[in-house]
Amino acid sequence: MTVESRPLRYFVAVAEERSFTRAAHRLGIAGPALSRAIRALEAEIGVRLFERTTRVVELTEPGATLLDQVRPALEAVDAAVLRAVRASAPHRSLLLAVKADADGGLLEDLLAATAAEPGAEPVAVRLCGWREHTRLLRTGEADAALTFRPYDPDGVDADVVAREPRVAALPTDHALAGAARIRLADLGITADEVDERAERDIGRHGVHDLAQLLALVGLGTTTTVLPASVAARYPRPGVAYVPVEDCPPATLVIAWAARSRSRGVAALVRAAGTVARSRGMSPVGDASG
To answer: Which tens digits make up the pLDDT trace of 263-286?
Structure first.
């Protein structure tokens, strides 16, 4: 059975909006036309996708299953089209997604090492926000990404570039600010909670970048744990950095779209390993999981 992508896109819109009216507005089509398209899709595949009432539209169990499978498939199609368009550009560059303050201090050397690779493609940096890297890979808006764990692994492959120690960022009037080193228990967290706490603080305070996070630390609103390379490059008044001796290391990876066969991306990955080894950091390894 072959189903065209358009009715599947209609289906996704209705599922996400939980309303035919809102979905029709989002898609820019008439409500009756959308309803007919969904009924035709249900008839074609032989299952009921929605339970319809006067107030709400709910997915059936087959509908939920279809949504889980269709959404990434449509994203992959869109990404393939975008990559094809970008590949046709007369002055094409590989796009490397990086958050401005989260490259492990390797970015400049990585770009230089990549340029030295035989037949290397030009690399342009695509600056992005917190946890945005792998979405850009899946949508075809970037070819590779430098990011710290944790990251969303769906649809991407990755190699470990480097591991580095982490430090606590504390307000300078904090009781531990003058310590030579501390332990996670001093911060009231365990090793398993380090990344979870950071994510929670970012979401709770609406943090968009490192400057905002460090401003909150300086005000005494929060404390956080950061890669040591960040502390070295971003001294801030009102913020003290203290090594945390039992904290799991920060893990920097280079990621790319799964099933990519780009020689340029392969050269970028090799260069990342070369740069990390030249800095005495961990060698490249598998980052899956």
So the answer is: 888 888 888 888 888 887 755 444
Tally of domains within the chain: 3
d(C-alpha 123, C-alpha 268), whole Å: 9
Average pLDDT in the chain: 86
Pick from 70, 86, 102: which residue ends a domain?
86
- By residue range, what is the domain housing residue 119? 93-161+250-286
CA 140/CA 172 separation, integer angstroms: 43
Compute φ and ψ for 43, nearest 5 degrees.
-65, -35
Coil, strand, or helix at residue 53? coil
Residue at a domain's end among 86, 103, 129: 86
Of 34-48, 85-99, 153-167, 177-191, give the lowest mean pLDDT range: 85-99
Residues 48 and 174 in one domain: no
